[in-house]
Amino acid sequence: MHDFRYAALPSHVVFGAGVIGTLADELDRLGLGRLVVVSTAGQRAAARSIGRWIGARCAGYFAGAAMHTPVDVTRHALARIAPLDADGLIAFGGGSAIGLSKAIALRTGLPQIAIPTTYTGSEMTPILGETENGLKTTQSAAIIQPGTVLYDPDLTMDLPVSVSGVSGLNAMAHAVEALYARNGNPITSLMAAEGVRVLARALPVIATTPGDRQARSDALYGAWLCGVCLGTVGMALHHKICHALGGTFGLPHAQTHAVMLPHVLAYNAPAAPDAMAALAAALGDADPARALFEIGRTVGAPAGLRALGMAESDIDRALALVLANPYWNPRPLERGALRAMLARAWAGSPPASE
Ligand code: NAD
User: Fold this and answer.
1) What is the C-alpha separation between 150 and 49, in angstroms, rounded?
2) pLDDT, tens digit, for every residue of 97-122?
């Protein structure tokens, strides 16, 4: 066993079908009485159902959360909720709603309860990525992490297949990078391997049978595990590339993760033999990068960055962004090999190691 350091993140997790019905009990436990519910516009109606569970303790709603947490949206939300005299936030939705809640908490100190309805895992991290002037910057602080998380698979039953698969692959990316993290540890690696294992089995079932309750529950469990991985150890090249592509070219977050993951894993494979062995076991496939690429096809993820609207002429700009301020990575960043990898990812070709 290697030497390691492990710091558990403080969060109270309630998991199970129907746990939304315990929301009022959680508010009692926390002593909260005036909550603002934050969501995307697309989930405005679903977020309103929160009022049914907490009655007069709902102080209001803000349904303007957007992908990549634009700072101007946060300013608008702060202005809207200031007169509501809130004592807490409820983030209802995927990473966009949770991101806005985190951004508001960072600026107000309000406690947060997250109710995730996708599989991206943001609710388990003290990390906030915000976008301003075409750049995405990330910071980490204890106040950013939601203190309470209610995982209710019933709330994910209507998550479209197109979002389910890519947000699950986004979660798997946290686990994959956790397995070769510089500050990795055995507990996080156990969670990472289990997260990959359950998501690899659940996502294809959801793609063909979106109403499968067991698969929905398993996927949300996997999302929790992978979210913990993201919160507890450092991420590497894959997350750096996805931040650059999302923040600068406006590519959709989860879809970009789904496209890039097999390619970055293939790039890192020669430098991460232990992670590859753990992934091979979790995926039941001797070629984990290829297996992740195939899962992407099975769940209907876009094949390449081209399909997401990125221009081929932007590959070099993306490469420059990745090389300019790199994260630690198990394999050194080699310009030529990275350029070839980005070109393959852009075209939607299968992953290849060079
Ligand atoms: P999202 O939150 O933008 O949701 C995608 C779409 O699905 C939205 O239109 C939303 O309204 C809809 N939706 C969500 N749940 C639904 C449901 N149950 N039924 C029907 N529709 C539903 O997408 P996401 O992939 O969950 O989150 C992406 C964002 O999360 C990005 O901004 C990313 O940066 C952030 N993120 C942050 C972290 C972190 O730790 N800081 C981790 C992962 C992702």
Assistant:
1) 15
2) 999 999 999 999 999 999 999 999 99
- List, in order of start, the domains of the chain with CATH numbers: 12-156 (3.40.50.1970), 161-347 (1.20.1090.10)
Contacts of 317 (CB under 8 A, 6+ apart): 248
Contact 96, 75 (CB under 8 A): no
| Pairing of β 35-40 and β 88-93 | parallel
Distance of CA 36 to the CA centre of its chain: 23
Q: Is the CB of 236 under 6 A from ligand 1?
A: no
At 8-51, the pLDDT tens digits run 888 999 999 999 999 999 999 999 999 999 999 999 999 999 98
- The count of C-alpha atoms lying within 13 angstroms of the C-alpha of 56, restricted to the half-sphere facing its C-beta, is 0
Give first-to-last CA distance, the chain, whole Å.
30
Total residues found in the chain within this entry: 354
Q: What span, in angstroms and rounded, lies between the C-alpha atoms of 278 and 269?
A: 12
Q: Nearest C-alpha to atom 29 of ligand 1 is from which residue?
A: 95
76's tokens:
């608008």
This prediction has a pTM of 0.96
How far apart are the CA of 40 and the centre of ligand 1, in A?
9
DSSP string, 40-104: EGGGHHHHHTHHHHHGGGEEEEEEEE-TT-BHHHHHHHHHHHGGG--SEEEEEESHHHHHHHHHH
- Ligand 1 atom closest to 157 (CA): 18
Q: In which element (H, E) is residue 138 found?
A: strand 135-140
